[in-house]
Amino acid sequence: MSVSVPIHQSPATATARCLLLGICGAGMNNLCQLLLNRGQQVTGSDTDSTRLQAFAIAAGSSQRQLATVDWTRLQSLDFRNYSHVIRSLAVPADLPIFRAAVQADCRIQTLPEALADCCRDVPRFCVAGTHGKTTTSGMLWWLLQHNGRRTGRYIGGDFQLPRQPDHAIGPAEMVVESCEYRDSFLTLSPDLAILTGIEPDHLDWFADPLSMLGSYTRFLSGVSDRGVVIVNADCSTACAAVRGANRRAVAVVPRHSGSGAGFAEFWEYSLISSRSLSARTVTGLPGQQVLLRHSSGEELLLDLTVPGRHNMLNAAMALAAGCELGLSPFAAARALADFPGMQRRLEFRGTWRGADLFDDYAHHPTAVSAVLSTLASCFPGRRVIGVFEPHQCSRLRGLMAEFSESLRLADELYVLPALRIRESASTEEATALSGELVQLIRNLGGRAKLVSDLDRVAGILDDAVRPGDIVITMGAGRTNTIHDQINRRIQRDSAA
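Request: output the structure for the sequence above.
Response:
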């Protein structure tokens, strides 16, 4: 049950001098690390000066190749000092600085193009799909690295650890979280692909479900002839993409679902038990024990520190991929038992006034539902207070009914105006859309309130939170910073 991939060594390359525009984004942050590990010189800039300053401080003295420049100073740069200018897709392509860069003979690239260059000379194990990419990518890297593989990583999040694992220098293979937005993942040619599932998303890019399916099918068609696709066969759209790509596939399915029908090889997963609430793991949550069964009849138990049905799927897919890449199921399962979870994925942020605080990146209805359902099952009988910042007006507008159904699962909910990213919506429109969401949730029997500004949330929670509550902040934008505000309140109260 393995796929053969060639092992290449990266050739020696001349030192590049790279200017990264939008460096504070997760993707550009990861690209920065890859370039530094290749010995390249990196200068970063971003429109968010506060985050840029924090980014420069966090880089630390071990990354002396990294410099930063304020966005307002870009116009005065001498672009002859750079060989490459790389932009996040959030940075417009028509900025005047690009004309100056071209005149200075700089190579202009987008993030997906530069990422493809970084990964070109080694086997690529790519994780794609609407949900679970970061966690599944983290799990796959974790089990490969902890079995002695020299595996590089490009993952849109950090591990829930005080210190991040070192990146491999001159990696022999790469785990790559692969984004579908604007067909970014089509620059990659995977040796193995994981497809976690496909649902309507990025409504500002995909005109309709057919165009979205077409992009995923083209991505999977890029898998090498000797490669394999690990697919969540419980998702019919993902199965359609696999059929369209005509590549060998291994299915991952819930046990007794029948979803594996039509696949010659599959893994089934089912919950054996959840650990007791007193047996919290480092994630602040009870873990779970999962039974995995291969179509050959082989079975094994998998202990996970991360709870939730969505994490059973993530882990099963990562383990299936590890087995295709030459690991034994037991070696892969042993490594996953120590997986610490990813930051902003049901991340425990401490306690406050007897309440437990969590943060999650959830910004799609299915992810929101998974987060709230998991918390309810982990902490039965406890009140769940949610704070949600919709990410993009287009996503909220297009999935309004689905968001209302998922968010009503919170016992009490505070909704912020939609975060306006890559779109021209006004502040009034963003606030009105969130107000419409609040009303729909109320119509469904939920308790929801509109909060006009993120800076007001900590004060509102100050009055609302009671001992025993669970507080969960959700969103792909700034909701994690609410915990920083709460920490400042705790420090202020301690000093008083």
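Residues 427-443 form the longest helix (17 residues).
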